[in-house]
Amino acid sequence: MIERSEGGERVVLVYLHLRHSSRHPDLQEFRELSLAAGAEIVATLVTTRDVPDAKYCIGSGKVEELQSIIAIHSAVLVLFDHPLTPAQERNLERALKCRVLDRTGLILDIFAQRARTYEGKLQVEVAQLKYHASRLVRGWTHLERQKGGIGLRGPGETQLEVDRRLIKTRIKHIQIKLEKVRNQRNQGRQARKKALLPTVSLVGYTNVGKSTLFNVLTSSDVLVANQLFATLDPTLRAIELQPLGKVVCVDTVGFIRQLPHSLVEAFRATLEETTDADLLLHVIDSQDESRDAHIQQVEEVLQEIGALAIPRIEVYNKIDLIPGTLPRLERDERGMVRRVLLSAITGEGLDLLKEAIIEHLSHDMMTGQICLSPLQYRQRALLFEMGVVTQESMEQDGHWVLQVRLPRHKWQQLCLLIPDMEQIGSKQTH
Question: Beta strand 77-80 with 10-18: parallel, antiparallel or unpaired?
């Protein structure tokens, strides 16, 4: 239903800066987004206004300037780094005689190119359908009204209404499939909770090095590329961190300023991997001049998905690009690790990060002794499978006495899993 160009199109970028806006201008990011979509940038137009123009978003004089630029460079597409209403998009296309796309449409196109899994493709399609539903009139202006007269009366609805109904039906169909995916993900998370496996999720602005850090932490080979949204589908791997045992590490899609709400909604099943994490590693590009603004954008998305209250460590990556900067840990007033400086590409500071993860997850650890009868061999095997047993001995009557160590909030889960176990004693450790 929605056709997308293969890329390589000659593109003009239009950047609108509002004088009284708190938004930070970031032309470089806009260029990188365009390049990530496969655009060939031939010209850039920057304009400043108090408020967007109701008809064109930019002024009529700038529209005439755009017409000249398009003619000179034979451009076929104009990209706006600003949201456009469907009416503004139609008016611009009529005036410029070429395709026009705003920031949301551009990000959706990048996601459509990068989606690899069945789930990712479904998520992108539902976001695209919602975006394009209000823009259908562009291709059907000749059918906006029902025709009257002998032989011209239709079945009672216009082509636009038919298309909108088809889109609604398709969205509903996809959402049913996504609900099944959500249930499958929930089953996976419940299985990890049952196994008492702590989860560490990597979050951060796009292209800050999350996948590189994920690879060195987990010895994986997740795609790494110096481009925005190289990672779209979440990846989960288990790592061994003693004395914790197995820890699940999650690599997630990167955030970006003005991330379309439709994408946040569509990727909610994926983002729930973040909301259920025990610890977030907020990866930050330490040599990026816009890092403070990017940190704020990530926190806004975390708040939107309900993950702002989860404990997190700021991981300042790429210190190898800052001369004289050494890997180190920084602590808050309570003595907890707040920040880790490292380089994922060289591995400097990786041991410090592992130390910080262990410290955070072990901060509220419980140790205790559990007595199991010879008939409870299945429960004994389960405890060893969980990796929480630190020591075991056997009594003369055949009972097993197991020393276990696990986070306090997991202790209650363990009591529910093995309700008939005999607890000899427990204490909190740090």
Answer: parallel
DSSP assignment of 201-234: EEEEBTTSSHHHHHHHHHT------SSTT---S-
Say if residue 203 is exposed, middle or buried (CB neighbours under 10 Å; 0-12, 13-18, 19+): buried
Cβ distance 251 to 214 under 8 Å?
yes
Read off the tokens for 424.
Answer: 């000899």
Q: What is the number of residues in the chain?
A: 430
Do 280 and 239 touch, CB atoms closer than 8 A? no
Distance of CA 349 to the CA centre of its chain: 25
Judged by DSSP in three states, 354 sits in helix
Is domain 365-429 annotated with CATH 3.30.70.120? yes
Q: Tokens 């197991």 appear where?
A: 402
Token pair of 252, please? 């997630």
What lies within 8 Å, CB to CB, of 120 at 6+ separation is: 111, 114, 232, 233, 270
Q: Which DSSP helix (H) or strand (E) runs through 386?
A: helix 377-386
**Domain 10-101 = CATH 3.40.50.11060:** yes
DSSP class of residue 53 equals B
Domain ranges for the chain = 10-101, 116-179, 197-362, 365-429
Do the two domains 10-101 and 197-362 of this chain adopt the same fold? yes
Whether domain 197-362 has CATH 3.40.1190.20: no
**For each of the chain's 430 residues, which pLDDT tens digit applies?**
444 444 458 999 998 888 876 665 578 888 888 888 888 999 999 888 888 889 989 988 999 999 999 999 999 999 998 888 888 988 999 999 998 998 888 888 887 887 777 777 888 888 888 887 777 654 444 444 445 445 444 454 566 677 778 888 888 888 888 888 778 777 766 666 655 678 899 988 888 888 889 888 888 765 555 455 555 566 788 888 877 777 888 887 777 776 666 666 666 656 766 787 889 999 999 998 888 888 988 888 888 878 888 889 999 999 999 998 999 999 988 888 999 999 999 999 999 999 999 888 877 667 778 888 888 888 888 788 777 788 888 888 888 888 887 766 567 667 777 766 666 655 555 5
Query: In which residue are the tokens 């562009």 written?
Result: 138
Residues 6+ apart with CB under 8 A from 241: 247, 354, 357, 358, 361
**What predicted TM-score, i.e. pTM, was given to this entire model?**
0.70
What is the Cα–Cα distance from 51 to 226, expressed in whole angstroms? 35
**Strands, E assignment, 234-311:** 235-241, 245-251, 279-285
Place of tokens 């705003």: 102
